[in-house]
Amino acid sequence: MRVTILGCTGGVAADLRSTCLMLDDDILVDAGTGAGDLTVCQMLRVDTVFLTHSHLDHVALLPMLADVAGPRRDTPLTVYALPETIAILKQDMFNFRLWPDYTVLPSPEKPYVVFRSITVGQTVELSGRKITPLPVRHAVPGVAYQLDSGNASFVFSGDTTYHEPFWNALNAISNLRYLMIEATFLNCNTAGAEASGHMRPELLAKGLNQLNKAVRLLITHMEPGNEDATMAEIQTAAGEFKPEKLKRGQVFEF
């Protein structure tokens, strides 16, 4: 399995893209602005999207992906998400007001987009690749994902604050190699992190102290302009772990 980082920041600016990962060449995990760097040919190869949650920086390009690919494909784009996420997208995005409802267009029998509900802990297997939703805690319902090749696993936290069940789930993964985890706010912004359900370095350290295995630690979703200060706080808090600032374009094989 191969993960390509198309977007990994908590906001957008020049050369910064919001969250989107490409698994091999046919699956996306989230559909933030990073998806906009794909060529039309690359978009047409994407059959499946897994969403962590409904916030715009993680779903903004989904309707446009459907718009480009839909008329050129014989099969719909399959989107896996929590039932709550699907309900939000159908009400607030695919509603004929913000965007056409491609779950019924061009016809209910042959739409451009098909939603499939996921459940925490229930694995979806696609061509031998196992994708399992893991528990997180955020301002809206959300999940993390374990991407398991059999040989090793790559976990992407999605958006989350400290959540003990998430760290327990990590400890149960025997082949965990990569942990891509958010750290949005500086430690001084306790109120902002609490209100929005995001991680601070101190909360990240609390979780890492529970982790029972070595991992390659990849930091994502930092606020634009605060990356260096956030990484400095993470370096101080991470103990034996060696956190890496994730970069757009990085590729991980496992």
TrEMBL record:
Signal peptide: none annotated. One of its GO terms (biological process) is negative regulation of glucose mediated signaling pathway. InterPro entries: Metallo-B-lactamas, Pdiesterase2, RibonucZ/Hydroxyglut_hydro. Residues 17-208 form the Metallo-beta-lactamase domain. PANTHER family: 3',5'-CYCLIC-NUCLEOTIDE PHOSPHODIESTERASE 1. This is 3',5'-cyclic-nucleotide phosphodiesterase. It comes from Nitrosospira lacus. GO terms for molecular function: 3',5'-cyclic-AMP phosphodiesterase activity; 3',5'-cyclic-GMP phosphodiesterase activity.
